[in-house]
Amino acid sequence: MTEKDIPGIRKYDAPAGGWGALRATAKAISEQMAAPEAAATLYRTNKPEGFDCPGCAWPDRKHTSTFQFCENGAKAVTWEATRKRVTPDFFASNTVSALLEWSDYQLEDQGRLTSPMAYNAEKDIYEAIGWDEAFNRIGQILREQPDPNMVEFYTSGRASNEAAFLYQIFAREYGTNNFPDCSNMCHEATSVGLPKSIGIGKGTVSLDDFDTCELIIAIGHNPGTNHPRMMGTLHEVARRGAPIIVLNPLRERALERFADPQDALEMATFGATEIASSYLQPRIGGDAAALKGIMKALLEMEAEQGKAAGILDREFIQRHTNGFDAFSEDLRATSWQGIVSESGLSEEDLRKVAQAYAKSNATIVTYGMGVTQHSTGTGNVQQIANLLLLRGNIGKPGAGICPLRGHSNVQGDRSVGITEKPSAEMIDRIERRFGFRAPGAHGHDAVAAMQAIIDGRSRVLICLGGNLGVALPDAEACFAGMRKLELSVHIATKLNRSHLLVGKHAFILPCLGRTEQDIQDTGPQAVTVEDSMSMVHASRGKLKPASEELRSEPAIVACMAAATLPSSRVQWMDLVADYDLIRDAIEAVFPDFSDYNARIRIPGGFRLPLPPTERIWPTASGKAEFLRFSGVAEDPVASDEAVLKLATLRSHDQYNTTIYGLDDRYRGVFGRRDVVFMNEEDMHDRGIQQGDQVRVRTALDNEGDRVLENVIAISYRISRGSVATYYPEGNCLIPLNYIDPTSGTPSYKSVPVHVTLA
User: Fold this and answer.
1) What digits encode the pLDDT tens for the residues 60-113?
2) What pLDDT does 42 receive?
3) Taking a C-beta distance cutoff of 8 angstroms, is the pair 453, 481 a contact?
């Protein structure tokens, strides 16, 4: 294909990490903070007496090491600790209508919110309001609602355990289980699928397991971008010679070559470490077929070599699992032709993965949203569990399943009760501790909540962080729905687009960030978070708050609850005065947090119980379950051969909906986001040249009017039949009801589309 000089598109040949990461970190610091203050702040990141990074949920290796942050962690910290401020004067000078014309990057880049604000519809501006007046007005509107189930309580994964726990107690005493949260949009397939397989909806590995594993299979994720600190771990594994097999539709630089900025020799010599020993590129939507192919190959290897060869762990299967016979029969009945056609991978390549897996005595499978954000996301996750169960790779050192959670406390929020499906046991314990009976009916997840808002069945939205309107698919429908709300409340550190989708009443309540001091009546407070490997530890901000008017998330939740529920049995203000009391209450409702306050005072914290690590299976049968996947297709087969599968993805200068900058250097994109990544042969078949302006149109039935315009085609190393564009820009192509029906997760990673010249 002829090369064109396209503004902002150029090759980036350096490894991931390395000097490029250091330059990007320095740039982020210079744009947001004074250098001396930034150095001191970053030094305290992920330390026992410091604060937990507000970025990803990857755990900490050493809690006393000099530096425990990565490039994107530094961006997250400096983005929050910025010297920039959004004051009442800013809002007085900019109408909401005018601000809606700004980009998402421009909105957040204005800096930290400093004062509580209330929307004035007549002037179309936000105006400053006193805290007490804001709480009283919010409480009055909530009390006036004819049905508590007309209120949605959204939670971002960056909320602390303490704030999330108070939040769910508030909502349940108010009378609803409507708890849409960010997990609904990423790893809900894990939370729903794994309990049926192994009894819990969490991963089973620890960082120590990466020290002893003999093989890693990495499926559907890009750790260099969304889990950068994971690269330090993969770097160590690769350096000691353990193979890492990658299955991902796109070539991701960090999974190819990585230079650890904390490795002095590698930096001094401009060296890098090869990460993937084998890199397979299934087509988008081909993961389930690939997994079935690997497992089918294992069965055939055993049939050829005999059970004594140890291809399958027969003793483990017999003692610890259920459903193997029906599961294995399904694999035998699945044709290699179907597997190869659907996965986009050759039979030979899949057999090689099976051979490597059979040689390993301890294997970890890591996976990301490339697995979960499909219409069969729950089934995809269960196939990964099946693969591990075949060789007894759960409940022994160096082995296990490792879902890559996103936000720094998205898993912790679930552990302290953020769920729309409360168990009877949880409801009973809430009643014993607080004296009220919570409702038992299931509430709304994120998609159901937005559908209720669009339909007018829900009239109030309260957001503990996040950017819900932008995060969900079908922005046009979501935006219109949110503008019909009677009340929206946003507890936030920075301005985003969801705050501007105002209805009759809207409030922005500015809160402390993870980096800032939290001082209550009994003195400085610590909050706690849970990482992706179930370690719970304390976080203590040290910076002076961005404004004297800021309040902590627990304090805002408590004051809002007290104003809404004047006859509440919960001693809200006592709990906020001393967060130890909140943790005592968490322990009373969730016994896994036993000795909570004592254990978080130990450097590094403590690990929550994970029964499968001891080969205890909290399933209905008391055993791990082999669960069949029907057929090999994750999505309906398109009748039109011109249909491609599109995945939305993040840039390197981005974390979820937060865009730190406009570069995506590992993919060769600088200063722009209006691109579609395409396979060169797919481009040739459609007469598309590098840099041509194209139109992307949804190919789902009755959804052909969903179009992404004004984007350019870029040739990229992506599997044949697959295309990708940035999130959230590509959300316009996805209907709100295009979900995994089992988990409710939107299918952001598998959208049938047509790509044509504009």
Assistant:
1) 765 544 445 577 767 777 778 888 999 999 999 999 999 999 999 999 999 999
2) 57
3) yes
Least confident of 36-50, 137-151, 336-350, 415-429: 36-50
Task: Give dist(CA 751, CA 285) in Å, integer.
Answer: 9
304 vs 684: CA distance, rounded Å:
43
What was the pLDDT predicted at 460?
Answer: 98
Q: What is the dihedral of CA 95, 101, 107, 110, to 10 degrees?
A: -60
Say what the pLDDT of residue 32 is: 75
Q: Output the average pLDDT for the chain.
A: 92
Length of the chain: 758
CB burial of 89-122 (b: ≥16 within 10 Å; e: otherwise) equals ebbeebebeebeebebeebbbbbbbbbbbbbeee
| pLDDT tens-place string over residues 251-294 | 999 999 998 887 778 888 888 999 999 999 999 999 999 999 99
pLDDT at residue 318, rounded to an integer: 98
CA distances from 462 to 167, 452, 556 (A): 10, 14, 12
Average pLDDT over residues 338-351: 98
Q: In what order do the strands lie in the sheet with 400-403?
A: 278-280, 244-247, 215-219, 363-367, 400-403
Residue 564 tokens, joined: 């809404």
Cβ contact 251:718 at 8 Å? yes
Closest CA to 518 of 160, 170, 44, 59: 160
One-letter amino acid for residue 712 of the chain:
I
Looking at residue 623, its pLDDT comes to 98
Predicted local confidence at residue 69, as pLDDT? 57
Tokens for 162, please give them: 């303490």
Tokens of 622: 């008391």
Backbone angles phi, psi at 689, to 5 degrees: -105, 160
- Kindly give the interhelix angle for 579-589 and 424-434, rounded to the nearest 10 degrees: 140
Rounded CA separation 388/383 (Å): 9
Q: How much is the pLDDT for 1?
A: 45
Over 80: is that where the pLDDT of 29 sits?
no
Report the C-alpha gap between 535 and 546 in whole angstroms: 29
Report the C-alpha gap between 227 and 625 in whole angstroms: 30
Cα-based distances in Å from 634 to 637, 675, 744: 9, 26, 15
State the Cα–Cα distance between residues 154 and 76, nearest whole angstrom: 22
Q: Could you give the CA distance from residue 589 to residue 570 in angstroms, rounded to a whole number?
A: 14
Nearest-angstrom CA–CA distance, 507 and 519: 24
Whether 35 has a pLDDT exceeding 60, the answer reads no
C-alpha distances (whole Å) from 209 to each of 123, 401, 436 are: 58, 11, 43
Mean pLDDT throughout 446-459?
Answer: 98
The answer to whether the beta carbons of residues 182 and 157 sit under 8 Å apart is yes
Number of Cβ within 10 Å of residue 208's Cβ equals 12
CB 674 within 8 Å of CB 668: no
CA–CA separation, 717 vs 677, rounded Å? Answer: 8
Residue 22: pLDDT above 90? Answer: no
- Alpha-carbon span 36 to 27, nearest angstrom: 14
pLDDT at 38: 58
DSSP string of 594-628? TTHHHHTTSTT-EE---GGGGT---STTSSEE---
Q: What share of the chain is helix, strand, coil (3-state, %, to 5)?
A: 40, 20, 40
DSSP string computed for 58-93: PPPS-TTSS----HHHHHHHHHHS-S-EE-HHHHHH
Could you give the CA distance from residue 669 to residue 118 in angstroms, rounded to a whole number?
A: 39
Residue closest to 253 by CA, chosen among 532, 11, 23, 5: 11
Degrees (nearest 5) of the Cα angle 742, 190, 224?
130
CA distances from 121 to 2, 125, 506 (A): 54, 7, 9
Report the alpha-carbon distance of residue 539 to residue 163 in Å, rounded. Answer: 13
